[in-house]
Amino acid sequence: MDKKTVTTISYLSRLKIDKNNEDKITSDLENIITFVDQLNDASVEGVEPLTSPLEKIAKTRSDKVTAKNNKEIFLERAPKSNEDYFLVPRVVE
After folding, report:
1. Is residue 26 part of a domain?
2. 3-12 vs 22-37: helix axis angle to the nearest 10?
3. Domain with 36 in it
4. pLDDT tens digits for 19-70?
5. What is the three-class DSSP state of 86?
6. Is 0.90 topped by the overall pTM?
7. Could you tell me if residue 84 is inside a domain?
8. Per the domain annotation, does 58 fall within a domain?
9. Would you say residue 14 has pLDDT above 90?
10. How buried is 47 (Cβ within 10 angstroms: 0-12 exposed, 13-18 middle, 19+ buried)?
């Protein structure tokens, strides 16, 4: 990683990097790349892929209707409606 690469990365990511911190940022990026490169050496044999990084099971509930159907009440209170829908003025001709 050199200063030219850091300058290119900062330009592409639309980040303004202070020239005084350029050496530190270059060093930090090299450390990050070295750390991530260690993942190539990790043994993943026999490890099942995860669908989520959280190993939690989603809570489920029974699928039953618990609310009352108030369709008729809402349609009666609407300025205009038919048997099943609200009627609204046409917006697009």
Report:
1. yes
2. 90
3. 3-41
4. 888 889 999 999 999 999 998 898 989 988 887 777 777 788 898 988 999 9
5. strand
6. no
7. no
8. no
9. yes
10. exposed
The number of folded domains in the chain is 1
Asked whether the beta carbons of 31 and 21 are under 8 A apart, the reply is: no
For residue 34, is it within any domain? yes
Question: Which amino acid is it at 48?
Answer: E
* φ, ψ dihedrals at 81, nearest 5°: -160, 160
**Confidence (pLDDT) at 68:** 92
For 2, residues 6+ apart whose C-beta sits below 8 A from its C-beta are 26
Q: Is 69 exposed, middle or buried (0-12, 13-18, 19+ CB in 10 A)?
A: exposed
Q: Which amino acid is at 88?
A: V
For residue 78, name the pLDDT band (cuts at 50, 70, 90). Answer: very high
Q: Where are the alpha helices (DSSP H) in the chain?
A: 3-12, 22-37, 71-77
